[in-house]
Give the backbone structure.
Amino acid sequence: MVSANRARRVPAPTVGRRRMRQLSLLAALCVVGAAHAEPPPAPRTALKVCADPHSLPSSNREQQGYENKIAELFGRKLGLPVTYEWFPQRLGFIRNTLTNNDTEDGSYRCDLVMSVTEQFDMAAPTRPYMRSAWAMVYVKGRGLDFIQSQDDLVNLTPAQRESLRIGIFDKGPATDWVAQNDLMDRATPFQSMTGDTQESPGKVIERDLIEDRVNLTFVWGPIAGYYAQQAKARGVEVAVIPLRNEPGMRFDFQIAMAVRHPDKAWKAEVNRLIADNQAEIDTILRSFGVPLLPLMVREDSGDDDDD
């Protein structure tokens, strides 16, 4: 007979009971996860582009820039109309466009920025679609045709140096190069951004260079090529000489598009659009006179892990 003081044995849970508890816990976790899951994005009804209304050759409100033409290409491929949120591409551009959801329904004002540097950190850059370089620009037939590279500019005779009237901007690698090569005494400074949102570096070519207020300037390649093309249509030949990189000084840059950081599926779709349509993109860029360099696309370029 078993003593009443001995502890009674409690049977161990069966395998079936343990399994039921595990399933119950899993079900509870699934319910909690579903309650906090983000709803799927609404179907895209338009390609909503963030753009500058006064920034040729990139874009303008009349949709005459290469960004506008590439956006039209993407719209056709997606079967969507293209709409724009206009804002000057300067301080506050991303905040007022791409990440601005101050709307009646809380939707974002636009979903795609067409041009950022590939290392841009205020949004998620895609794979690059364009590589170009800063360029040296002058009007042909005015005494500077012997200059075919930046080396020629460095090795001027004293008399040739005295004839220079260089237009430079307050920002950019070319200004650093001019300073490094002791040419600042021959320079006239211009602001890259003024209070006038319709003023752009291209106006220095269109106005000051053509009218001989300066006889040489340095401009980002796509701007230089476009305004040289416009000048040629008016009978003025403008030389555009891309600058080559030097030790410690880079002049070439790759340009990507950008989406919001969390929009990984959209970023992947834009990457596919760029990759599948690169030849047509190049054709558009060349039609604007953009001096293109070969793209350097890494295998992981624009991947989500880079965010």
About this structure: The domain at 132-242 is CATH 3.40.190.10 (D-Maltodextrin-Binding Protein; domain 2). Residues 1-10, 29-38 have pLDDT under 50 and may be disordered.
